[in-house]
Design goal:
Elements (H helix, E strand, L loop, with lengths): L6 E5 L7 H6 L5 E4 L11 E4 L2 H4 L3 H6 L3 E4 L2 H6 L4 E3 L2 E2 L12 E2 L4 H11 L4 E5 L24 H7 L4 H8 L2 E4 L14 H4 L1
Parallel strand pairs: 1-2, 1-8, 2-3, 3-4, 4-5, 6-7, 8-9
Length: 195
């Protein structure tokens, strides 16, 4: 297991994931989600779920220096030498660490937490999990934009219900180091205290 017993930083794409935050994570175990890889190119793992994200970024994925993991079968078939597919399921709790099975989340970021645990993390620290607009910013990058879907972030946040207790039952901890995050399921921590 690549992260056995370690604290792993999972980088979502919220606007609070700045270049300074990304730089502070260098040399630490990191799972980066989707286009957050633009700020965290030295991450250990790039994780994504959507083929619509993958297809226009195949060259960037091919050039990513770490491990690339998805739940998307098309992406893994399109680039089998680079992209590893892991099974995912709607499970009521987390699979045993090292099982190779991912608990499905409502978003790529949520499922990435399960990936960190499957890879052995004892603690997961969330960065860039704003789950809201910050001013007019939705992401930490300009890689893509979309018309805001009313209530989208509310559905993302609601999907985390119970994950804190489930993680503790499974023997690991999830904490949120995203200032001002709309996601209150997990205890808030200062990122500096985790470094």
């Amino acid at each position: 297991m690549p992260f056995a017993g370690q604290t792993v930083f999972v980088c979502g794409s919220g606007p609070s994931l700045t270049a300074d935050v990304a730089d502070s994570l260098r040399g630490r175990p990191v799972v980066t989600v989707n286009s957050s890889m633009l700020l965290t190119p030295s991450a250990d793992v790039l994780f994504f779920t959507d083929n619509s994200w993958f297809e226009p970024r195949m060259a960037a994925v091919a050039g990513f220096g770490g491990r690339v993991v998805t739940t998307n079968s098309h992406s893994a078939k399109a680039m089998p030498e680079k992209v590893e597919r892991m099974p995912v399921a709607w499970m009521p709790s987390f699979a045993e660490s090292g099982s190779g099975n991912l608990r499905q989340g409502r978003s790529s970021g949520q499922t990435a937490i399960s990936l960190a645990r499957t890879f052995g993390a004892s603690r997961v620290v969330l960065c860039g999990f704003d789950m809201r607009f910050v001013g007019t910013q939705e992401h930490c990058h300009d890689d893509y934009s979309r018309v805001p879907e009313p209530g989208l972030y509310a559905t993302f946040v609601a999907a985390f219900a119970g994950w804190d207790a489930d993680a503790r039952t499974a023997g690991f901890e999830i904490v949120n180091a995203t200032p001002g995050s709309a996601l209150t399921e997990f205890p808030y921590v200062d990122l500096g205290d985790m470094l």
